[in-house]
Every structure is written in structure tokens, then in C-alpha cells.
Amino acid sequence: MALNGYFGIPGSGKSYSIVEYVIIPALQKGRHVVTNIPLKADLLVQVFGGRITQLELDALEDEELPNKIPHGAVVIIDECWRRWPSGQKISQAPMGDLEFLKEHRHRVDKEGNAMQVVLATQDRSDIAAWVRKLIAHSFEMSKLEEVGLGNKFHIKVYRRCPTGENVPAKYVIREAYGTYKPEIYQYYSSATQSEASDLSVGDEKAMDKRSNLFSSGQALFLMGFIFFAVLGGLYLGYGYVEPKMNGAKHAANSPDMPVVASVTNPPPEAFGQKIVPGKGLVQTTEVTQQSARSGEPSLSGFWRVIGEIRRSDQRRNQGWDSEVGYGVSEAPGDSSRWLPDLVILGSLFGQRLVTMDQCKRFPDGIQLYCDIDGERVTPWSGQQSASKIAPTGRDVLAPATGDGERSDPKPVAGARTSSPTARVTVVEDSSRTPRALLASDVPVARQ
């Protein structure tokens, strides 16, 4: 077994940890314990069994100490810096010490138990570098009196035996907390120079209480403030979230409502909008379903008029120049070969062409409307007017409410097929008036 090291200032739990986690488990296994920590050997052996050899206080000065330790023993050497102080070179160490520390695991007793060595001192840098290199694991204990936990201590477990205040994280194995138990205290005394008859540990309570963090009135006030601040934050947070949760539940339990989107293209003046003088704005008006007006079709929730294609009347009697002289019978000019005037319908899913004979103009003589598939298509119908269920396999996309002329479309699940009544505010926008494309010289492709 490699060496283990226990480190910590006096009263930090170093000797306590050795007794609880090294000596008592060894005795329970019937091992032979050799140590210079003052133990109540008779009581320990009576309770846990095993065997204990108590070293004298000056045993570390004996050069023959390594040869006096029996094979297979569990050896605990407290204040090991006295024998191997910092700065000692390996060439200065006795050969017996080198063999003891480097080859101790080869010293096996008749039961097959290999020797184990535990070194203890106050600081890792107190012992010689060549000894530190032999330590496999380091246990560093520290008091928690500063936070008012006098009966607990902190333990850090390191790989090897690193030194310094800021130990690299790669050496840290784990951290834990220990508690002083009275039943362990009764088996040892960590005060090796005590003048008490039973070598008991003296009263270590500090005379100056200012080292305790919680003895400060400011610290107590801060703790109370933090406590009530957390309670207040939880109360305010619940007050903010609770109405939203109730609103969500109410919305989930309420029946489906028709989805209404905003109008972007302005309807013609025949619908009764009024221009605000000097501002170019249209006052709010009521746009109702077309079905409510003399039995006309309802506005389409999918298509809207976006333009038209008209033929030029100037060259209707001329044939195609490319066919003249090639024996085409209708080359001299046949208007039946030309496409009729067309109206362009648009939606979020594409465009559609319909013939002009399916459409009419509003009284203003400019805006077109078409009765398609039992619905009325206008420049302000379609997705820019009201939500509608798209053709099979498609979801309706309704524009988000905003001040801009157009908004990014968003899916609306379960929208109504009819166009509900909407209160809209429209803005005069002449740039969106449908424009005619004149096919003056280039004929349109054949049907």
C-alpha cells in the first residue's frame, strides 16, 4: 500500500479522522496498530479488538525506529516533520528510513497483511519533498468555526501531495464534511503535551468571539434581510404568474372564437370609408360579410386580386410575323388566337389567372372583383382581410398584428371558413392599386 497523509492545523479534525477512519477500522479487522498518537489503548482493544503499540513521544528521534516496527502493522506517525523536515534531501535521509517508506508494503506478516503507513502533520509543505512524492492521497482538514459550526470540519481529498494555497483542480478528488462525535473522542487525546492526568484535550473555545462570522450584528442583519427578501420575491413572483396561469386555463376551457386578421389593402370608397382631412388617413369603418349585402357572395379568405393582363387593341388584326409566308392559314390576323384579358389572383401559396369575363369593376372604375368558387375576390380579400381554412393539406397563415403594411404570416389552427365581421383601420395607399400589363407588341402564348 502507498502512503497516505493527513494534514490540518491543531483542532481541525486531523487526529479525529485518523482515529475514526484508520485506527478503529484496523482494530476491527484484528490488525496491529503502531502510533505515537495518545490513545486509550485498553478501551479501544476492549471494544474493537486487535492490538495497539503506543510509541513514546521521543520515538521519532530513534534512528532504529523503522526496524522496531513489526511487519504487517498499520503505522500512524503524527508530527512526521520532526523526522523528515522540509528541505531534507534524499541523500541526507538514513537508509533505514528510505527502505521503510519506499518498501513498507513488502513487509507482510504471517496472516498476509502488508504494512500500511499514515503520516500526519499540520501542513503539506512541512515535510521533505522526497517524502511527499511517496504519498498517494492527501486528506486536508479545516475548522468551520468561522461560520458558527464548531462541531463540524471540512475535508478535502487530493491526489498525491500538492502544496500551496491554490491547488490545481486536477489534484482534487472530492470534498466532504465531518462531524465530531463524542463516542470517538473517548478513545484518544490529541494533546500530546497535555499536563492533565488523563491527557485530555483542553478547552479550545476562543476568548475573542470576533473570529465567528455569526457573532457580528451586521452579519445577522444581512441574513435576516436575505431571508425576507427571498420570501418577498417568491410572493411577488407568484402574484405575477398566478393571473397568467388562470388566464391560460380560462382560454383552454373557452369555446373556439373566429380568427380575424387585419386589412392591409383599402376597400373602395363605395364601402363608406371617410378620409380624415389633411392627414390622409381613413377613419375606422365596419366591413361586414358580403353575404349580408343583398345576397352577394362572401369575401374570399384565400384569394385576392393583385393585377390584370390586358391585350393591346392596336394590333389585333395583325398576324404573327414569324408565321407569315409559312403557309399558316390564319396568318393574316385572327384575334381568336390571342388569350383573353386576364385577372391575376394571388395568395400565400401562389397565383392564379382567371378570364376577365368572370370579373367586374367597382363603381370607381378601377378596382376589380371576381366571383370565384362561390366567393368574392377583391384587392382587399384573402389573407390580408380575414382568416380562412386553406385547401386540403394546407394550414392557414394569418398576418401578425402590427403597424407595418405587411407582417410575417403566422399559422392559425382551426380558423373559421367564413369571413367574420371585423373592425379595421385602413390607411390610404395608392401604391397598391392593381396595375394593367399591356401586351402591345408581343403576343401572349396560345391557350
Automatic annotation (TrEMBL):
<protein>
    <submittedName>
        <fullName>Zonular occludens toxin domain-containing protein</fullName>
    </submittedName>
</protein>
<keyword id="KW-0472">Membrane</keyword>
<dbReference type="Pfam" id="PF05707">
    <property type="entry name" value="Zot"/>
</dbReference>
<feature type="region of interest" description="Disordered">
    <location>
        <begin position="381"/>
        <end position="432"/>
    </location>
</feature>
<dbReference type="InterPro" id="IPR008900">
    <property type="entry name" value="Zot_N"/>
</dbReference>
<dbReference type="InterPro" id="IPR027417">
    <property type="entry name" value="P-loop_NTPase"/>
</dbReference>
<keyword id="KW-1133">Transmembrane helix</keyword>
<feature type="domain" description="Zona occludens toxin N-terminal">
    <location>
        <begin position="8"/>
        <end position="193"/>
    </location>
</feature>
<feature type="transmembrane region" description="Helical">
    <location>
        <begin position="219"/>
        <end position="241"/>
    </location>
</feature>
<keyword id="KW-0812">Transmembrane</keyword>
